[in-house]
Structures are given as C-alpha cells and as structure tokens.
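Example record for the data management plan.
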Amino acid sequence: MERIQKILSQWGVASRRQAEKLITAGKVRVNGKIASLGDKLDLAVDVLEVNGKVIQLTDRPQPIYLLLNKPTSVVSTCSDPQNRPTVLDLLPNNLKKGKGIHPVGRLDFNSSGALLLTNDGDLTLNLTHPRYHLPKTYLVWLDKHPTEEDLVLWRNGINLNGKKTLPAEVEIVRRRGQQTLIKIVLIEGRNRQIRRTAEKLGYKVVELHRTAIGSISLNSRGKTELTNGSYRHLTSSEIALIKNFN
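Corresponding structural encoding:
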C-alpha cells in the first residue's frame, strides 16, 4: 500500500506537491470515491483515477537517474509560483513531462553545480533523509582570506539555530586578490548551511559551486566538467553506488 501522491509521482502524473493539490481539489478517485490526503492504495487491486483517467499499473515509467550541472538563477523545484526557470526546464521535452522526474534535494537559487534528478521516489526519500550522510563537495569563493582559527571552527562545527553542524572538511585551494577559494566537503545538508556558516564567521560567499555528490562528479569520467545547464544519465555503477549508500 502506498500513499496516492507517491504513486502519482512515481507514475509521472504529477510531483508529490502537485498530486496533493489534485487530491484536495477532488480530482482524484479511488475505486470510484473521491480520495483524501493520506489515503493509501494498491494499484494491483484498486482503481485510481485522475481527472477521469485510470492510472494503470503498467503505465509506470522506467526509473531515470540524471546528473545536472545546475546554473545559478534556476530553482531546484519542478514548478515555481514566481515563474522562475526550474531545473526541469533544462531537460528535453521527452524527460520534462510525464516521467515524474524531480530534483533530489536542493541547491539554492544563487548556487550552481551537481544536482541529481530522478523519478525514483524511494531513492529520493533515502538520500534526503537526515540519517544518511552522503558527502557533497563544494568550491566556494569567499570575499576575503579566512584565518586559520576560523577554518578550525568551520571544520569542527558551529552552532546554527542552536544545533552544532557536523564536522566538515575545509581547505584553502587558492587566492584571487582579496578573495579565497575553499573546498568544503559536507556530510549533512542543512538549509543554506555554507552561506550561513560563512556569514556567522564574518565572511560573504561570492560564488558557490557543488562539484560532486559522493563519488558522482561533474567530471567523473575523466573529461572536462559537464557544461553549465547540461545533464547526463548516471552509469549503472553510479546508480548502484547511491542505492547502496548507507
């Protein structure tokens, strides 16, 4: 038994949020009755309808796993009430609609880099759950040179909203005028964690680019980095890696 919004997401009918709106609008029926949020069903035995169309068990699309190099000024959602460009807008039409593809986690509007996209809801749930600590690597330009004392604080963790961040790898890569490029590896994904940490230590993030999620890198094939705004399918070994991560 699965929640209706999960089934609609996995079958590519709508994102989970959109599915919830369809349910509350009374456009979803289960066995002929209008569904409610929280209802569960087994598509092998129950009849699910959306706007009068029956969703068949055999209609489920094949699982898709993509790595996208998200540009800045793009939101990491399937739709945006402010009509800003979304990550789905970067995909071709055959992937953009009807496949249930959605981002796994987020990169904020002003950040760029590696972002996973999939229609595998179970994988999304696993990778975004706080108990999993999949490392993510970032290159971050700061507005000035950090002191060694501040780098130690960053590595050891600081309090954000009353909770200490987990230890992180932080190292200086190079300097450019008054700015410094640092490499950060995080094993947690709190909201705008890098920007908030930098601000608390007295620095401003000038640029933030995620280069890798686990061992899945924008240039993991030994070639030049996946170009800004482009995507590729994950290899079978990369899919196995993220599915087996715990």
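Summary line stored alongside the record: Residues 16-24 form the longest helix (9 residues).
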